Automatic annotation (TrEMBL):
Name of the molecule in the record: YlxR domain-containing protein
Entries under InterPro entries matching the protein: YlxR (IPR037465), YlxR-like_sf (IPR035931), YlxR_dom (IPR007393)
PANTHER family: BLL0784 PROTEIN (PTHR34215), YLXR DOMAIN-CONTAINING PROTEIN (PTHR34215:SF1)
Pfam families, A to Z: YlxR
Boundaries of every YlxR domain copy: 9-82
The organism of origin for this protein: Paenibacillus sabinae T27
Alphabetical list of NCBIfam families matching this protein: RNA_bind_RnpM
Organism taxonomic ancestry: Bacteria, Bacillati, Bacillota, Bacilli, Bacillales
Classification via SUPFAM superfamilies: YlxR-like
CDD domains: YlxR
């Protein structure tokens, strides 16, 4: 079996370098929306956050997403993202565990 190169990305909240699949991508779409991108395939400017709600909250507090996406992210969007984040967190962790079994 070949060792695959793991692409690393930085979490915008904790500044940790992590394998891409352990991070949740948040994207600013060409239409200017800020959304969670679980597929990693949406076009637009992306930012990564560890798949942990604490990190998301930290990003909200420090406005790390605003800086990473180079767009002001309103409080409502952060709240919407936080809700989405909670709902994808389990899905994300389940997918991660499944891929660890490979
Ligand atoms: Zn983090």
């Amino acid at each position: 079996m070949k060792q695959k190169k793991v692409p690393l990305r930085k979490c915008v909240a904790s500044q940790e370098m992590m394998p891409k699949k352990e991070l949740i991508r948040i994207v600013r779409t060409p239409a200017g929306e800020v959304v969670i991108d679980l597929t990693g395939k949406k076009s637009g400017r992306g930012a990564y956050i560890c798949g942990k709600l604490e990190c998301f909250k930290l990003a909200q507090k420090t406005k790390a997403l605003d800086r990473a996406l180079k767009v002001p992210v309103s409080q409502e969007i952060y709240e919407q993202l936080a809700r989405d984040f909670i709902s994808v967190e389990e899905q994300f962790l389940a997918a991660k565990e499944a891929s660890d079994d490979e």
